[in-house]
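User: Structure with calcium ion, tokens only please.
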Amino acid sequence: MENIIVMDYYKYFSNREFEEANFYEGNDLGAVWTKGETFFRLWAPTATAVMLNLFETGDQEDLIESIPMVIDEKGTWVAAVNRNLNGIYYTYSVTVENESKEAVDPYAKAVGTNGNRGMVIDLSSTDPAGFAKENKPLFENATDAIIYEIHVRDFSMDQSSGMTNTGKFLAFTEEGTVNSFSDPTGIDHLKDLGITHVHLLPSFDYATVDETRMGEDQFNWGYDPKNYNVPEGFYSTNPSRGEIRVMEFKRMVQALHQNGIRVIMDVVYNHTMECEESNFNRIVPGYYYRMTADGYFSNASACGNETASERAMMRKFIIDSVVYWVEEYHIDGFRFDLMGIHDCQTMNEIREALNRIDPSILMYGEGWTGGQSPLPDYERALKVNMCKVDSNIAAFSDNLRDGIKGSVFSKWDRGFVNGKEGMEETIKFGVVASTSHNQVNYQRVNYSNAPWASQPTQTVNYASAHDNLTLWDKLALSNENDSIQDRIKMNLLSAAIILTCQGIAFFQAGEEFLRSKPRDEEGTVFEENSYNSPDFVNSLKWDRKSDYIDVYNYYKGLIAFRKSYRALRMTTTAEIQANLRFLEGLQPNVVAFMVNQAKETICVIYNANRETINLQIPEGEWNVYAKELLAGTEVLETITGGEVTVGPISAMILVTQHL
Ligand code: CA
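Assistant:
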């Protein structure tokens, strides 16, 4: 399409009158199946004709018939087919400006191979036994979350997983699996570790992996959306039958729920894989995307385009999609990729829609973009605008992420745990979950000079995620002259910080056994952007759990400790201000604080120095729960307070009856 035409559309769609005349509020977009009739409704206000095409399969030349749709209210087109269409595939042919284009229904609930046709589906037939009435694991406050970020394929592809359904959703249903040393893997591992949520990298239908070549070593993270309301076919056992991926995704969710683990989806509404030829753009050219002043697709995603969440029907699409995943698949949370592209109003309306179903559903995202956006900064859900969104919407803290171990953009940069001076205030900023606290000097905080979270429920604290080097690889590069033993201490100190900070705790799968993504056999070159790297780079190497079982036990112990002390998971800034005091007058590279809970006081000390330190804590009977390489809910020793000794590069956690 000529840019000038796109630009004309853009102005046309940006007119409030257009939105008012064409906003369709109903909940029946897509194909609504009943045994006797399937009713189709498509929003296409600029179309002059729309045909509904029915097919036997998702990818063969087997058109059954094409049915003209009729114009209905608010720019929608409708058709009713009076027979049982369950399992029948469909597309729309939409004519705009005398040009007809075939598109998949953005509201499709099932698709065929590679997502090139929608499929009409009787969703009730896809529920595993007991799913409709299942109980979700109990969960109350966002700050109770301990989130484990995992890619579906990575979870099971390595031989050491001991799993059968390698690379599939169903791997999450396999209990009793073990690695080469008979240590538990898979869902048993997750349960033993004690995390509250798994966060799945994009698991809706994405474009880049070819579902006709299922047995081959293909890989993608999945940040290339194609069909938002359908699970990815590559993770199913049969992508050519639309109902299979739906059933298998539900079985995965059910198995995780039965093991006490909630499920978060990484969602990527900020852009689509295709631009001009996306389904959105084939149906209503120019409506769903932001454009630059000179008529090109704007590109705040750095992936070729950015969607226009401020447009009424794009906003509605996102809200409808999120609600659909909750209601149909029982999803418990959403991580919004490049959330800073979306406008604050959309994020707030999603929150309101979710609150009506279940307020404990998590919402968090990246409070930044991948480039410039034409929508003004003040309207978008950037980290600095967290004050404009609901207190139950959180952003990732890159402040703490890089303050702990160095910038993700530099291999050599270091942070608090691995030898950089002057990082104390950034660590304290993490401890108070980016909120306001009168003992934090914000002028000395990494990347921010003011608190950006109004409540601790707005901060996700982390040291590693799928992007960039794993924590262990980062330490290998930034601290190549340090011993493995010292790097393990740095890694454990990082874990101690993440798991004793206020806010939401998050880490990448495998961090608990020193995950590495080496590109070569020698293990000296590491992948920092493994979005399409082979399995040998990406997959979880479960045997490492046994190699580093002490590291695993440290993570497990800290998780258990965090879960048993509500004082580490306070829900309001006021509570933190009233109950958390930093110790002052400490030597450099030490952060320590005391936090009160009911009749107890917890004292947490982080020593990033390479020497043992001594510091003063109040006299009393202190039970030590974490020290050097050990952490957990069992008392390691009892000391009397006064002067305490903390080992090199380590955390110490002590608890006493109220002082
Ligand atoms: Ca796909």
